[in-house]
Write a structure and sequence with these properties.
By secondary structure, the chain is an alpha+beta fold. Helices cover 38% and strands 23% of the residues. Strands 7, 8, 9, 10, 11, 12 and 13 form a 7-stranded mixed sheet that branches. A 6-stranded mixed sheet has the order 5-3-2-1-4-6, sandwiched between helices. Helix 1 runs antiparallel to helix 2. It is globular and about 70 Å long. The chain starts with 22 loop residues before the first helix and ends with a helix.
Length: 474
């Protein structure tokens, strides 16, 4: 909640716990189709035919109706072609898109914030290597026919030549990266017949998205891009870490220099990493690529000059177009600028519940700690806190969150409920209000724990570079 006298209005937390009409039914259809992919589509059984029919029925009132009905019928008969699999992937994506839209509308109603009504369209026509898209689609269809239980190293390895040929082409790199990551996950789980647990939803998500990206033009960037000139007020940093890569995404409010409507924007930076670099050491890999990280840790705004901005609100960061501005305290930004900031539209292929991450300010809550973790309580309403998403690359810990009185975070939806991922909290220390930020060490730190972690990361990187140098000399 945000008190009215501090720049905002009460957040309707009760709306976040009320049921959303049609949500459970849509997700049940998606689950039914995902189960079909487990056993594969080569020789569908009666139970699989039911899941396919339910998917076709769910989109019967949409422009996809005829194509999906034909695809479901052909697939159930074991006679589906590539176009039929594309139609099924499109239907599943559309259903999850409707779930995304319903949840976002509920969040907007709860926080009293608007977004651009114009949908994010794809860019104009471009030239594509159709043969490579066809090869990728063919491999994905073979995987779908085999099913997750039928994958083996020979089948999964079929993606390697396609990926290696795609990667040098910038227009195909997005698809190539996704295809490569998907294949790597499948390869690590081969043979599928011995799997004790299948990540059903995740692999179906990856399969559907990759399948649609093989359609020419689907990977084009969002249209409506512009240049941003004005003041950028950071709200916090979301760090996403993988064994071989790390990404930091800064959420912020952008105030245009021409006095236009403030907008919610994001700026991201990523880097490859060795699996031995973790915690605060991650910042060493990211800092050289984005001056914004230093501004976040110092609590300062950034002045932007014609910074490229996509139609979905992502800044294409260029240090040459930014300079450090005046001090800008995160909670002041959240109380004054955040309530009036409008969100950008979401591109069609990005409409998925897992993509929801809405910046919010929460105050006036009580904290409950139990077996389910930390929970914020608001006048009888409960909002789960996802402390697992808080990266170890900063001083924000579950204990700090549990002792907080205010929180700036990302409102997400997962496992059937809304929850908040903290980016920064305010707590009382020796009768003084102190802010603790997840990105406090992004630009460097004098904190003892942070210094130790940075030193350990430096040592690890030095050793790896020496080893790599010796191998290259050989």
């Amino acid at each position: 909640m945000v008190p009215d006298d501090e720049g905002g209005g009460l957040m309707r937390t009760d709306l976040l716990t009320d049921a959303v009409d049609g949500l459970d039914e849509a997700l049940a259809v998606v689950d039914g189709f995902d189960a079909v992919l487990v056993a594969g589509l080569l020789r569908p059984q009666p139970a699989q035919a039911h899941g396919l029919a339910a998917l076709a029925e769910a989109v019967a009132g949409s422009p996809l109706a005829a194509r999906v009905a034909e695809a479901a019928e052909k697939t159930a008969a074991g006679a589906a072609g590539e176009d039929h699999f594309v139609a099924l992937a499109a239907a599943r994506t559309a259903l999850l898109g409707s779930v995304h839209d319903a949840l976002v509308l509920r969040i907007e109603e709860a926080v009293g914030r608007s977004r651009d009504e114009q949908s994010a369209a794809t860019a104009g026509d471009a030239e594509y290597a159709v043969n490579l898209l066809t090869a990728a689609r063919s491999w994905l269809c073979d995987v779908a026919r085999a099913g997750w239980q039928g994958i083996d190293h020979e089948l999964v390895g079929g993606s390697a030549p396609v990926v290696s040929t795609m990667l040098p082409d910038a227009a195909l790199r997005r698809l190539a990266t996704l295809l490569d990551g998907f294949a790597a996950e499948l390869a690590a789980s081969c043979p599928g017949a011995t799997l004790e647990r299948v990540p059903v939803r995740r692999w179906a998500d990856l399969w559907s998205r990759t399948m649609l990206l093989t359609v020419p033009g689907a990977a084009a960037s969002a249209a409506g891009g512009t240049e941003a000139t004005g003041r950028l007020l950071p709200l916090g940093v979301d760090v996403q870490e993988h064994a071989t890569a790390v990404l930091a995404q800064v959420h912020a409010v952008f105030e245009p220099a021409d006095g236009g409507t403030p907008r919610l924007v994001r700026a991201s930076v990523s880097a490859p990493k060795p699996d031995t670099v973790v915690g605060a050491g991650l910042w060493q890999l990211l800092r050289p690529h984005m001056s914004l990280l230093a501004a976040v840790s110092e609590g300062r705004a950034m002045e932007l000059d014609a910074m490229p901005l996509t139609g979905e609100g992502d800044l294409i960061w260029d240090d040459a177009r930014a300079r450090t501005g005046e001090p800008a305290e995160v909670f002041a930004t959240a109380r004054v600028a955040l309530p009036t900031a409008a969100a950008f539209p979401t591109a069609p292929l990005d409409r998925h519940p897992a993509r929801i991450a809405v910046p919010v300010l929460l105050e006036g809550y009580a904290v409950e700690e139990g077996e389910d973790g930390v929970v914020f309580q608001f006048a009888g309403q409960r909002l789960a806190v996802d402390t697992d998403r808080v990266a170890a690359a900063g001083p924000l810990t579950p204990d700090v969150v549990a002792s907080s009185a205010a929180c700036v975070g990302l409102l997400r939806w997962d496992a059937g409920e809304f929850l908040v991922q903290p980016l920064a909290v305010e707590r009382t220390v020796r009768k003084k209000s102190v802010a603790v930020h997840a990105g406090a060490w992004a630009g460097g730190t004098t904190d003892k724990a942070g210094v130790r972690a940075e030193k350990a990361a430096t040592d690890a990187v030095t050793v790896l570079r020496e080893r790599a140098g010796r191998l290259l000399r050989k």
